[in-house]
Amino acid sequence: MLPPEIAVRAPLARAWAAIPAAWHRPLVLLALAWAGNVALFFDDWRAMALQWWDSSTYNHILLIPFILAWLLSLRWREVLRIEPQGWWPGLVLFCGAGFFWLLGDFAGLSLATQLGVVLMAHASVLTLLGPRASVAVLFPLAYMLFLVPAGDELIPALQTITASITMALLDLSGVPAHIEGVFITTPGGYFEVAEACSGVKFLIAMIAYGALVANVCFRSWPRRIAFMALSVAMPIMANGVRAWGTIFIAEHRGIEFAAGFDHIFYGWIFFALVMALVMGTAWRFFDRAIDDRMIDVDAITSNTILTRLTNMAIGPRKGLAAMAGAALLFTGWGTWAARLEAPLPTQIHLPNVPGWQQVDYAPLASWEPLHSGAEHTLLGRFVDARGHVVDVSIALYAAQEDGQEAGGFGQGAVPLNGRWAWESSPPPIAGGHADRIQTAGPVHRLAETFYRSGNLFSGSNTRLKIQNMQDRLLLREHATMTLILSTEDQVSGRPPATEALRAFVTATGPVDAWMDRVASGR
After folding, report:
1. Number of helical H runs and strand E runs in the chain
2. Radius of gyration of the chain (CA)
């Protein structure tokens, strides 16, 4: 009997020997490139893996590495008929992906940095294996993009769509209802289409599943596109039906019964039935035979465009060395910029506002904006003699990076998974970004957000991120400040929220100058 280690090595040795000799060195170099990618950008890969494991929205990604291995196995024998070669334009794409990662790192945008490391893995294949081999494994490479945990950004839009579908179905079913943003009131209760009810989990998983089925089961592009459209539309519509069903049941059996029914039936059974319905609808249109080859190597090798592209050759070792140098440059630049922090005062204060007095903060419903990673935060309340009430939230940051972002997703006036939910975006009063938000009660708030960094004064999160990226690229030290002016609305005995905010801004003078005074500690 062979020792265990020899028993394991023997099949691996035979498998390696079965690979054409021309592939040995490129595969070893590609393995080194990918190992270096993981080592240099370990924080990004670790953050992705933690999201796959910890977030139910992305648990399905745990299956994607196995799906990728299976997709490669379907193509591997055909791919090995292609002779790999180094290709220098792949270095251009690698540097572009690395620069994209750098910009994401500067902006503190984890989605961009994670996408950047996956794109660098793609570019490594192009650089070391060449255009023909890369085209042969094009779909598995494209499917790697699903490793990036993306989709939470869709939650607000999906909440709005779900609420609209729910209202339409309630009207058809004869249930009287009133909607404000994502809050629905019926005779049976007060309901919120919360983040967890947006349907984003099922939509993201269904898109990944739909892309796989579209490639494996269809050859015709119109049929693939139609199936992907069905894979997107069906979970969105189904989630609207789910929300309507929960409210409809609550009308007749009570909210507690509806909540339990939603968790058991809709959480586990309903969407399985929806997936089965999608597959059952598409089954008759599958046009790829079970024994069809996934790629046509003869067409790839005879393609004139690919033939011309192969003339742009580079030695694989030189390609690997160039990628290593570029990756070290980008990570070094990012590390240097990350050390830059603007000097801040040891303490900041809410300045006096003419005609206004600071009082104890006592909201009708607890409200506290989220400012993760800020060095200083303040939350106070001001009133004037006319009965206007304005709450002021201030956050001051020495630098902007992942986990320390003034405009990060879920930061600011409407913290993700908090008690408050977005209702609408009315016109701003003083050049910021206005949000009307609501919580149970219902209690309404009007909040206007402003950002200040260097010479930038804006309510635009996009403009703030561009400013932060410019600062890091040019190694400039600028503090970043968030100001949120807010007041409760539709409160008996108080003036309207817009009137209160307008009066406060008039008293403070130019908002940017007021923010500068706070940031200076004066």
Report:
1. 18, 11
2. 28
What is the pLDDT at residue 3? 57
Angle at Cα 494 formed by Cα 488 and Cα 496, nearest 5°? 65
Long-range contacts of the stretch 173-182 (C-beta < 8 A, 24+): 173/244, 173/248, 175/247, 175/248, 175/251, 177/247, 180/423, 180/438, 180/442, 181/421, 181/422, 181/423, 181/424, 181/436, 181/438, 182/421, 182/422, 182/423
Give the pLDDT confidence score for residue 186 in this predicted structure: 85
DSSP letter, residue 346: S
Supply the pLDDT for residue 265: 63
Give residue limits of the domains in the chain: 22-149+301-338, 153-283, 356-519
Q: Report the alpha-carbon distance of residue 420 to residue 215 in Å, rounded.
A: 41
**Whole-prediction pTM value?**
0.84
User: What is the three-class DSSP state of 394?
Assistant: strand
For residues 218 and 241, what is the distance between their CA atoms, to the nearest angstrom?
29
Q: Which two structure tokens, joined as six digits, stand for 237? A: 């519509």
Ramachandran class of 97: left when φ > 0, alpha when ψ lies in -120 to 50, beta otherwise:
alpha
Which of 188, 204, 159 lies closest to 420 in space, CA to CA? 159
- Residue that has been written with the tokens 């024998």 in this structure: 77
Per residue in 128-146, pLDDT (tens digit) is: 999 999 999 999 999 999 9
Average pLDDT over residues 295-319: 90
pLDDT given for residue 321 in this prediction? 96
DSSP 272-312: HHHHHHHHHHHHTT--S-TT--SS-HHHHHH-HHHHHHTTS
State the Cα angle at 95 between 92 and 98, rounded to 5°.
150
